[in-house]
UniProtKB/TrEMBL annotation:
It catalyses: 12-(9Z-octadecenoyloxy)-octadecanoate + H2O = 12-hydroxyoctadecanoate + (9Z)-octadecenoate + H(+); 12-octadecanoyloxy-octadecanoate + H2O = 12-hydroxyoctadecanoate + octadecanoate + H(+); 12-(9Z-hexadecenoyloxy)-octadecanoate + H2O = 12-hydroxyoctadecanoate + (9Z)-hexadecenoate + H(+); 13-octadecanoyloxy-octadecanoate + H2O = 13-hydroxy-octadecanoate + octadecanoate + H(+). It comes from the Eukaryota. It is found in: Endomembrane system. The keyword Amino-acid biosynthesis does not apply. It is a multi-pass membrane protein. This is Androgen-dependent TFPI-regulating protein. Keywords: Membrane, Transmembrane, Transmembrane helix. GO terms for cellular component: endomembrane system; membrane. The lineage of its organism: Eukaryota, Metazoa, Ecdysozoa, Arthropoda, Hexapoda. Belongs to the AIG1 family.
């Protein structure tokens, strides 16, 4: 088999494994992870599971890889040059570049960085009884692994640079605080107002940098001849 065939098969395998992993993880998290109020008072507060960036990222990853898996089947239904297929592919590329990749990198790198500094800043040890370690890794480690595998097994044209996701995240966190007067993440309660502003500014800058990392990683892996590469490797 040619390199193109190997990459196509590998990319489909990534989509299958990631879809199973993230769909099940999100389902298990939503249905079975119920942390008592005395352990984590914020858990039952405004927003439910959807106030947690980890859970939202899991939902986005499940949505992306399921969509990508469906797109793997669509060429069997539509002609390869179909305008419908082209539009759906553009949606897939845009969602990966602007949401799935930078958000997974942000969640994974910030979570584990804070974990090794002081895990109580993100997930106090008492939560381990309710949030199993395998789920911790699927939601905080595998998101990084699968998006990197997606990057190296399929070329995608990157859209124009965007940074609205970070603004949405910061707004969401403050909406939750305004409703229940508790911060979603313990680290925020340890910071005064000036440091909190710096934290959110750093978050904005870091997420923007992660978008650029994805863009240049894509160019590093696939070279600087997008049309030629796309014609050869686009699944």
């Amino acid at each position: 088999m040619s390199l193109t065939t190997y990459l196509t098969v590998a990319n489909i395998a990534v989509h299958v494994l990631a879809t199973i992993t993230f769909v099940f993880s999100v389902y298990y998290n939503y249905v079975y992870v119920n942390i008592p109020t005395h352990v984590n008072p914020i858990d039952d507060a405004f927003g439910g599971k959807f106030k947690y960036l980890t859970f939202l990222d899991g939902c986005f990853q499940a949505l992306y890889f399921l969509y990508a898996l469906i797109m793997d089947v669509f060429p069997l239904i539509f002609p390869s040059k179909s305008s419908v297929l082209e539009t759906l592919s553009q949606v897939k590329h845009f969602f990966f570049a602007s949401v799935a990749f930078p958000l997974s990198m942000f969640v994974s790198t910030t979570f584990w960085s804070l974990w090794f500094i002081d895990r109580s800043l993100v997930m106090p040890k008492d939560i381990d009884l309710y949030f199993p370690i395998w789920l911790n890794h699927t939601m905080h480690t595998f998101v990084f692994v699968f998006t990197c595998l997606e990057m190296v097994t399929a070329y995608r044209p990157y859209p124009s640079r965007v940074s609205g996701m970070t603004t949405h995240i910061c707004l969401q966190i403050h909406i939750v605080y305004s409703q229940c007067h508790m911060w979603v993440y313990p680290i925020l309660s340890q910071l005064n107002l000036p440091l909190r502003c710096l934290f959110f500014l750093g978050t904005f800058v870091y997420t923007s940098v992660l978008y650029l990392v994805g863009e240049y990683f894509n160019k590093f892996v696939w070279g600087y001849q997008p049309q030629k590469v796309q014609n050869q490797y686009d699944p």
